[in-house]
Specification:
The complex is a heterodimer. Chain A is mainly β. Chain A is built from no helices and eleven strands. The chains are: A mainly beta, B mainly beta.
Chain lengths: ~120, ~110
């Protein structure tokens, strides 16, 4: 089955440590996204990538870094510079090819809940 | 960036229709209207989207005002599985990356 996987589901980190969240998709989608969700809030865009080896900052990129070395993978690193990293992190992907169905819809992974101790 | 406004919460009785409103008074001509829903501790899932005309699919209907400044998601018969947070989102097709702008959504409670 095609889909997006995120691991781990729950992650605990000590203050001052970097941590990397995994996101993998086998949907053959070109575009991938990382969002952050705080309790009772909507999703805020951290980074996005439209193609391999290219990515752009979203609205809240400070304290985060990403890489896109493979089409299927878009890992997110939460660095020690992120002042308040405890949140629910969601990865999504989207087809950019107009002949696919559904075109331009984002498919989301199950999320990773990060807690800083 | 165009934004959306939704009621924080709504209730519906099971098997009754539900109309979830959304205001987007600053919508531009290149913005699509999308609806996603999110169950607790899960990622959002696509519900429906449209540009100008009303849309129907197996999950819901989307009614778009003639001036496009508001829209309504219609669930024809609410079930307990429809209890979720519903997000009305504008997708800016003119922006790099086709970004989706999520608001805080409407939390729908379905009463048995």
């Amino acid at each position: 089955d095609g889909g997006i996987t995120q691991s781990p589901k729950y992650l605990f980190r000590k203050e001052g440590q970097n941590v990397t969240l995994s996101c993998e998709q086998n949907l053959n989608h070109d575009a991938m996204y990382w969002y952050r969700q705080d309790p009772g809030q909507g999703l805020r865009l951290i980074y996005y990538s439209q193609i391999v080896n290219d990515f752009q900052k979203g609205d809240i990129a400070e304290g985060y870094s990403v890489s896109r070395e493979k089409k299927e993978s878009f890992p997110l690193t939460v660095t020690s510079a992120q002042k308040n990293p405890t949140a629910f992190y969601l990865c999504a992907s989207r087809s950019t090819r107009s002949y696919t169905t559904p075109y331009n819809e984002q498919f989301f992974g199950p999320g990773t809940r990060l807690t800083v101790l | 960036d165009a934004k959306t406004t939704q009621p924080n919460s709504m209730e519906s009785n099971e098997e009754e229709p539900v109309h979830l409103p959304c205001n987007h008074s600053t919508i531009s001509g290149t913005d699509y209207i999308h609806w996603y829903r999110q169950l607790p501790s899960q990622g959002p899932e696509y519900v429906i989207h449209g540009l100008t005309s009303n849309v129907n699919n197996r999950m819901a209907s989307l009614a778009i005002a003639e001036d496009r400044k508001s829209s309504t998601l219609i669930l024809h018969r609410a079930t307990l599985r429809d209890a979720a947070v519903y997000y009305c989102i504008l997708r800016d097709t003119a922006a790099t990356g086709n970004q989706f702008y999520f608001g805080t959504g409407t939390s729908l409670t379905v009463i048995p």
